[in-house]
Design goal:
CATH superfamily of the largest domain: Metal-dependent hydrolases
Bound molecules: 3-[(4S)-2,5-dioxoimidazolidin-4-yl]propanoic acid, fe (iii) ion
Helix content: 25-40%
Largest sheet: 7 strands, mixed
Number of domains: 2
Strand content: 15-25%
Number of helices: 16
Oligomer: single chain
Shape: globular
Amino acid sequence: MSRHLLTHCHLATMQGHRDDPLGLIPDGALIWDEAGAAIVWAGAQKDLPSELRAGCEIHDAQGAWVTPGLIDCHTHLVFGGDRSAEFRLRLHGASYEEIARSGGGIASTVAATRQASAEALLTRSLARLDQLLSEGVTTVEIKSGYGLRSADEGKCLQVARQLGQLRPVDIRTTFLGAHALPPEYAGRADAYIDEVLVMLVDLHRQGLIDAVDVFCEKIGFNLEQTERVFRAAHRLGLPVKLHAEQLSDMDGAALAARYAALSCDHLEWLSPSGAQRLAQAGTVAVLLPGAFYFLRETRLPPIGLLRELGIPMALASDCNPGSSPCTSLLIMLSMGCTLFRLTPEEALLGVTRHAARALGLADRGVLAAGRRADLVLWRIDHPVELCYHIGHRPDLQVIQAGLWAGGTGRPA
Ligand code: DI6
Ligand code: FE
């Protein structure tokens, strides 16, 4: 049967208003169409039109809370090696920037990634992806940026695409060729950007790129170099994103806003004027508390200002070997609240509705008729519990693109 009806559930539609940001519907019901992979109806069970019920396969959710499938909108999931040795150095006092400048950091992951076969990368990345999926994630963005030359950037993006074929998840790929300067281009950043532009056109032609990102930072690329990449992306009709103001204020947010960026990510050093520009451009602020925690940063992103300006805030894992070796979006909910003082409602919108927007995906992130049937049934008493626990995953069932995609505990 193609139509499914969930009864005896509570809905967090993520389409609320000021007094009810999550758009909660207790005693709800939801119909989705398997063949169309779309939600047909969502609302209070008492309002369910009887003609819609006819012909549905019925699933009693036994009081579960239903949310949209979670979206991790910023990861660097595909990489070789690990950086535990660097972690030790940092605990002995070396800073992330010092390590990067002395040839470690991202460059060491680049060496390991170049060396790894596609098969080895796939195996390691699949293990990380499975951790994310076990927590109800149904869409994951994956950036390149550890290959830094055409064959290896392509290898990583292809692995990312393969992950999406092997598991019930929608993978969105972002080209981050301008992540760091590869050793063969030492002292020649502008020449490397020339190379990035060639890779961009080539990998786009291979259908491997959904969006384009740059690490705009003193240890990354400057504004001019960033703009060259953005211009090329726009020529190809690709949306842009930016690693902006993570370690210093480079005024990257203003540049990103000029290019109608989908998102600016990190933002610990975002200035008031940069925030204004993001608000005007409708750019999403992606907050990455895992990196803030792991690098033991002390400067918080200007959450109060983002809130005041009505800038949508997303939350993501930033899963990467150097600054956020974490594969749990639920822990990001906890860190978003405890470290960044987000409200639980803001945090939950940050991994659903606003994360979808950070990827330019208008078809998901909320429970509403016509949206993708990416759903999670949680065995919890209230959605706030998802932010409250630390390292506890409640029992859950996942429906991805209209199909049951596994879970733990009692199936509905
Ligand atoms: N900012 C980050 O936090 C990651 N990349 C970036 O541009 C860190 C990447 C790494 O250290 O491997
Ligand atoms: Fe990142």
